[in-house]
Amino acid sequence: MQTTTFLYTEGSKIFISKFGSDVSLAAKPFPILVEFVPIHFNTDELSALREVERKNSLPIGSIKSAHWIKPIERRNPKQCRAHMSMELFRPCDANRIIRDGLVVLGPRCPTRKLLPEPIRCMKCQSFEGSHFARDCTKLIDTCGTCAGNHRLKDCEVSSLDQCFCANCQEPGHAAWDRECPVYIAKAKKYQSHIADARYRFYPDREDPSTWELKQDSDHPWVDAAQDGDGWDAPHQADHPRDERRVPGQRQRPPAAPHKPCPFPMDPPGNSQTKLPEAWNRAPPRPTQRQRSLSSPHQTLDRPPTPTLL
């Protein structure tokens, strides 16, 4: 931790100077997903990124890059908004955008942390082996839209009804569709091995507010944890804000709820433990005076019902 802080502050120039003048220190970007951004936003212009920083009171130069999730040529003619990925240099700026959203060309767009996805080969459309098209051993190309023996750019399918998935062998969606059951299963398994995937923000040891766990039960790491991969699936309701997990610690399973007990304290759960005699006695009944004072409908001219003590 001290080494990381040293390199991110004044120590970066000292560290780089030991390797020569042509060496630069590459900072790890922190990606986020910005949803429903107006499509007339130009992601390639640096002036547009600087304007977003000013509108959201971010440090100038904090945004590294931005690009659209879906290629522009695949948009619907009537589409007016699209999802955009954005990379920031500092985790504190990314966490702030995740918490407050991002103002882009007027509206405030919802944001969330962008997690890495499993690699899909652009030639055979398979997730197996996490290989790229240049390393694929298949001799024939497979289309990601209709599963035909041609490249994706040569596909003539224009409607969703004509799509066919090459992975799950089901019609109605393409291999690049994120609703594909094969993709969902692969993403769950892939993201279950990422340490900070279970957190809503990028965890910071000095900021407990970034330790908030995700509430979405359909997220890949939650289901993967229930499948027995060695992680316990946490629940947001079982962990108060001041007792949430510290990054790097395994989660303790939630305790079973206690049954209501009329005694001052719950008896031990071990049946072999000898209980005090006071716990075996019935609670004392209220006296006649206590009953008369506690009952608003009881009058003084009517004698109270005798009580057996």
Q: Briefly, what is this?
A:
The chain is of the alpha+beta class and 309 residues long. Among the domains are: 84 residues, Alpha-Beta Plaits (2-Layer Sandwich), CATH 3.30.70.330; 58 residues, no CATH class; 52 residues, no CATH class. It is built from eight helices and six strands.
Percent in strands: 5-15%
How many helix segments?
8
Q: What's the pLDDT, averaged over the residues?
A: 75
Tally of strands: 6
Q: What keywords describe this structure?
A:
309 residues; alpha+beta; Alpha-Beta Plaits; 4-stranded antiparallel β-sheet; two-stranded antiparallel ribbon; 6 strands; 10% strand; extended
Task: Explain the layout of strands and helices.
Layout: H1 2-8, H2 11-17, E1 30-38, H3 46-55, E2 63-68, E3 81-88, H4 91-100, E4 102-103, E5 108-109, E6 111-113, H5 181-191, H6 220-226, H7 277-280, H8 288-294
Antiparallel strand pairs: 1-3, 1-6, 2-3, 4-5
Provide a descriptive summary of the structure in words:
The structure is a single chain. 20% of the residues lie in helices and 10% in strands. The chain has 309 residues and is an alpha+beta fold. Among the domains are: 30-113, 2-Layer Sandwich (Alpha-Beta Plaits); 116-173, no CATH class; 192-243, no CATH class. α1 (2-8) crosses α2 and α5 packs across α6. Residues 217-273 and 295-303 have low confidence and may be disordered.
